[in-house]
């Protein structure tokens, strides 16, 4: 949009330190096929994404088409690239309605995907993995969709199922526990996604003057995994009744 910052997430499946590590580092190069569109910043990679922000000049022409190309040059000379056609549009300012009303907030579509032990090889998971999220592009609508994966055969949930079966709880009861676990954990993963976006923006504000990113300011995968483990254990305990606690 003309005169506005436009943030573009780029899917990335390499290590977070690939651009900053001392040896075998890679180079990320965005190429914009329009001189009136400026690269404002680049953030990441972090948690499977590189984020770039573009801003068309105020004198850019509505309807202009240009190519955006991103390339990753690996240390061995291999070049990985992707290209997309973009169009410049005018941001439509909504009229201020002093009478109030509903405010429409922009949120990504999301999809919750429960996983079982048979799905572990796809994600290189084991019993200690709790869940992850991935921002992907919907092939039909071309909109971003946040896919939230929850491991229903994790060690902690599996132990709780076995414990409740030993107390002669019904299958319907166990299904209700699973459904609550999915809902609460998926919500926490969504909050992690929102927190990551905030980290991106905060990092830019703090480093804008120096244009420097030391690669150590983002929450690491290990920190997120430990947090998810803590949340999973807390959720399971919170589902227990006084009868459950007495049985322990």
Morphology: elongated
Task: Give the end-to-end Cα distance, rounded to a whole number of Å.
Answer: 59 Å
The total of helices stands at 5
- Strand order of the biggest β-sheet: 1-4-3
Rg over alpha carbons: 22 Å
How would you describe this protein?
The chain contains 5 helices and 9 strands. The chain has 2 domains: 6-87, Immunoglobulin-like (Sandwich); 109-247, no CATH class. The chain has 248 residues and is α+β, with helices and mostly antiparallel strands. The strands form 3 sheets. The chain has a 3-stranded antiparallel β-sheet, covered by helices on one side.
Spell out the key features of this protein.
alpha+beta; 3-stranded antiparallel sheet; 5 helices; elongated; 248 residues
Overview in brief:
The chain is an alpha+beta fold and 248 residues long.
Task: Please give the structural blueprint.
Elements: E1 6-11, E2 27-32, E3 37-46, E4 49-56, E5 65-73, E6 79-87, E7 109-115, H1 120-123, E8 131-137, E9 144-151, H2 155-166, H3 171-207, H4 221-238, H5 242-247
Parallel strand pairs: 7-9
Antiparallel strand pairs: 1-4, 2-5, 3-4, 5-6, 8-9
Helix pairs in contact: 3-4
């Amino acid at each position: 949009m003309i005169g506005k910052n436009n943030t573009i997430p780029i899917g990335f499946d390499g290590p977070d330190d690939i651009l900053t590590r001392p040896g075998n580092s890679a180079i990320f190069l965005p190429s914009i096929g329009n001189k009136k569109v400026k690269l404002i910043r680049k953030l990441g990679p972090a948690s499977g994404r590189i984020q770039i922000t573009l801003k068309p000049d105020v004198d850019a022409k509505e309807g202009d088409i240009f190519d955006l190309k991103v390339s990753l040059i690996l240390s061995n000379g291999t070049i990985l690239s992707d290209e997309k056609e973009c169009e410049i549009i005018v941001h439509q300012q909504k009229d201020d309605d002093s009478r109030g009303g509903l405010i429409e907030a922009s949120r990504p579509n999301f999809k919750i995907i429960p996983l079982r032990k048979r799905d572990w090889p796809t994600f290189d998971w084991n019993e200690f993995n709790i869940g992850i999220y991935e921002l992907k592009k919907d092939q039909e609508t071309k909109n971003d969709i946040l896919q939230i994966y929850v491991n229903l055969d994790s060690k902690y949930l599996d132990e709780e199922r076995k414990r409740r079966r030993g107390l002669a709880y019904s299958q319907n009861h166990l299904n209700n526990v699973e459904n609550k676990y999915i809902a609460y954990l998926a919500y926490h993963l969504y909050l992690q996604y929102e927190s990551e976006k905030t980290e991106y923006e905060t990092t830019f504000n703090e480093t804008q003057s120096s244009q420097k990113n030391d690669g150590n300011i983002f929450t690491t995968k290990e920190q997120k995994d430990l947090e998810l483990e803590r949340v999973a254990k807390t959720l399971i305990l919170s589902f227990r009744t006084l009868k459950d606690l007495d049985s322990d």
